């Protein structure tokens, strides 16, 4: 396996590497975060959000990663602006420098290097048609422990406040989470759960997408 780039931030070590199967992989503190071999669920996160909203013009995405969710959003011409919150400066730099295929050249995209919590809180009330969260491997498999609050009712309530009527929160998870489902139901009144079958290096797995509509 070959190292493509490495960086250190206050949260730890990031590694971008080329696996022996040819896939590009992002790791944080040794933990798998994303690769470009199986991207269907990250793209489904985008299509689930797009399908759920009548007019998905203004969208906020938490977690740039390798850019598959953002890239899938941009294929929809109804999308006029995508604000991307990415906490790791290196992830943005690697995309800007071409180490990772870029989704940032589209004029509809603006990236904020920062915590998605702060980026959501900075948005005006009722200004967004969609908020998409994919910053961890899910609420039960966090990349950073501090992210646990993102799946709890206080932050979900802040997301709801920033959604326009009919706007939708969509959250990716690598495992079923009864706690997330009930927190979304508490804040939004209902929660749609979509299991996503994926093939991971020959293994059949199920990921999940959770949605609440304002
Ligand atoms: C699983 S990857 C996202 C994958 C992305 N959906 C894609 O299509 O490639 C998670 C990303 O979220 C970022 N991240 C983690 N915690 C964050 C936070 N609190 N705020 C913003 N970004 C965060 C990580 O650095 C990483 O780039």
Can you summarize this structure?
With 214 residues, the chain is α/β, with parallel strands linked by helices.
Key words describing this protein structure:
214 residues; alpha/beta; Rossmann fold; seven-stranded mixed β-sheet; four-stranded antiparallel β-sheet; globular; binds S-adenosylmethionine
Topology:
Blueprint: E1 2-9, E2 12-18, E3 24-28, E4 31-35, H1 40-52, E5 58-62, H2 68-74, E6 81-86, H3 89-96, E7 109-113, H4 116-121, E8 128-133, H5 153-162, E9 163-173, H6 178-188, E10 192-200, E11 203-213
Parallel strand pairs: 5-6, 5-8, 6-7, 8-9
Antiparallel strand pairs: 1-2, 2-3, 3-4, 9-11, 10-11
Bound molecules: S-adenosylmethionine (SAM).
S-adenosylmethionine (SAM) is lined by residues 33-34, 42, 62-69, 85-88, 91, 115-116, 134-135, 143-144, 147.
CATH classification class: Alpha Beta
**Helix count, DSSP H or I runs of 4 or more residues:** 6
The whole-number mean of residue pLDDT values reads 95
Q: How many E strands?
A: 11
Beta-strand content: 35-45%
- Uncertain spans, ≥5 residues at pLDDT below 50? none
Coarse structural class: alpha/beta
Beginning-to-end CA distance, first to last residue: 45 Å
CATH topology: Rossmann fold
CATH architecture: 3-Layer(aba) Sandwich
Strand order of the largest sheet: 7-6-5-8-9-11-10
Helices and strands, in order, run as EEEEHEHEHEHEHEHEE
* Cα radius of gyration in angstroms: 16 Å
Bound molecules: S-adenosylmethionine
* Biggest beta-sheet profile: 7 strands, mixed
Q: How many structural domains in the coordinates?
A: 1
